[in-house]
Write a structure and sequence with these properties.
Elements (H helix, E strand, L loop, with lengths): L8 H63 L2 H8 L6 E10 L2 E10 L14 H86 L1
Antiparallel strand pairs: 1-2
Helix pairs in contact: 1-3
Length: 210
């Protein structure tokens, strides 16, 4: 949308103030975008580390569980795993990364510890599998927090990028063009006024001489 204006000095002064504000806003937005990108990259790296660790633990736990099923009877495996497991809680809060609201998830383990069954009659592989699965829980909670933060920061980066582009390629050029046009129009009017004054002066001079 083009800027509407009147070719007056007051209007030019108003547009210059708008241009100054837009230029400052553009710089602040660019700084915010760059810092958000830097934070985003940090979270992406952490996300990659967590995902690799989760996949490793999951593979190890599943491998141990497969061996346990091969060395134990199905009834023994079912009896061991049907026991109530230890409970755990997740505290959900919110935090800020620059101006973006992000989740803060805290894993609160149960006071109970150890395996949820007696070790008598179970294999070492089953014990190992259950322990690895229990180690996965806090990692999965952190991974969920980091992935959600990455998504929110990516959205914020895109919104900030659009605002920066709107200021840089639309608003600021339009303001500069409007100021230039007003300046040219004012100069033209001033030259016209000066020409009329000179003609009037010449006419009065001729009249006096006549």
């Amino acid at each position: 949308m083009a800027i509407s204006y009147k070719p007056t000095r007051m209007e030019m002064s108003r547009l210059k103030k708008r241009l100054s504000t837009a230029s400052r806003g553009h710089k602040l937005m660019k700084d915010k975008r760059d810092e958000t990108v830097r934070r985003f990259i940090t979270y992406v790296r952490r996300n990659k580390e967590l995902r690799q660790r989760v996949e490793e633990l999951m593979s190890e736990a599943m491998a141990s569980f497969v061996v346990a099923k091969a060395t134990m009877t199905p009834a023994a495996v079912e009896e061991a795993l049907c026991c109530p497991a230890a409970s755990a809680k997740v505290q959900v809060e919110s935090g800020k990364v620059l101006s973006t609201e992000v989740p803060r998830l805290t894993y609160v383990p149960s006071a109970e510890s150890g395996l949820p069954y007696g070790v008598l009659g179970t294999s070492h592989e089953l014990d190992s599998a259950v322990e690895k699965f229990s180690q996965l829980m806090p990692l999965l909670i952190e991974l969920a927090e980091v992935e959600k933060t990455c998504n929110l920061l990516a959205d914020e980066i895109e919104k900030t990028r659009r605002r920066v582009n709107a200021l840089e390629y639309v608003m600021i050029p339009q303001l500069k063009d409007a100021i230039h046009d007003i300046s040219m129009k004012l100069d033209e009017n001033e030259r016209g006024n000066l020409t009329r004054l000179m003609k009037t002066k010449d006419m009065l001079k001729s009249k006096d001489e006549g």
